[in-house]
Input
Amino acid sequence: MENDSYILVIGGTNMDIGARPFGPLLPHDSLPGTVRRTPGGVGRNIAVTLAQLGHKVKMLTAVGNDAQGRELLALGRDLGIDLSHAMCLDGIPTSSYIFVEDNKGDIQWAVCDATASDQIDSEYISLNADLIRGASAVLLDTNPPTDAITCAAKIAYDAGIPLFVDPISAAKATKIASILEYITVLKPNKAEAETLSGRPILTEANIEDAALALLGMGVKEVYLTLGKKGVIAGKSGEELLRMPGFALHPVNTSGCGDAFVSAVIHTYLQGCSLKDKARAGIAAASISMETKSAVNPILTAEALEERLKLIK
Ligand SMILES: Nc1ncnc2c1ncn2[C@@H]1O[C@H](COP(=O)(O)OP(=O)(O)OP(=O)(O)O)[C@@H](O)[C@H]1O
Ligand SMILES: [Mg+2]
Output
């Protein structure tokens, strides 16, 4: 990696606010419990993980000019992410994801205010086109509106910059349906792969069919992640490969997908094989699941190397 090379992350920055009552979740009452606030947003999680893995990271994102937005920008800068091109918008609330769990920890209600991410428009992307063209890789999440996603993907594609995409959710995945041919590496989970390939995944054979369909639609490389069942990885011109998940001390699997794609970018830039990129994804996900927070602060390049010794 050259000193001035950087990875550009384009996507959402959120504040996640989760509440859990001590007893049963009952309506129309104020329940004693815990409320925790954690920084989130798939783009931000990946940007933080890439910085921890030793990369220079720049981010195009938007927050509101409110206490949460300023706090998220300050935290990102402290972690070494270049946020000098991020938008901090007056009169717009920072995107937040608010969820209420039952006392067992299962999410019962969730509301997402994505007003700030909606401001990441194609004009802002075009103004920062040189930042895309100068990157060693671009990671795009599907929080920005479709026109901004399409604009960013086209600029990266025309400039020959490898483009990595995390579709985030089945609902938001539809935003990338028309740009699959611009994508170098796609990391859908099962539901996202079903939406994008247009094929229900009901059997083991369906999983392979969905991965092959995505390659047929123009994606150059795909990592279809399957929770504890691991991943099916494929690349045009190569056999699909299957690798099981790996867990040592699991605490919370949310954010495992973000760690997975971060490690794939990390190893792609080292010129690793499909198998070694998939191994790195599995290893990073297994470290990610060892904390309650979406990003495990101990997920560094050294920790990843150590964990890889346990994965065939
Ligand atoms: N219960 C589990 N046991 C073992 N490994 C797991 C488990 N859940 C997730 N993983 C690992 O994390 C990877 C990504 O998980 P998953 O397919 O759930 O992605 P995702 O839905 O994108 O996750 P995210 O919540 O981060 O969006 C899997 O390929 C696997 O390696
Ligand atoms: Mg995911």
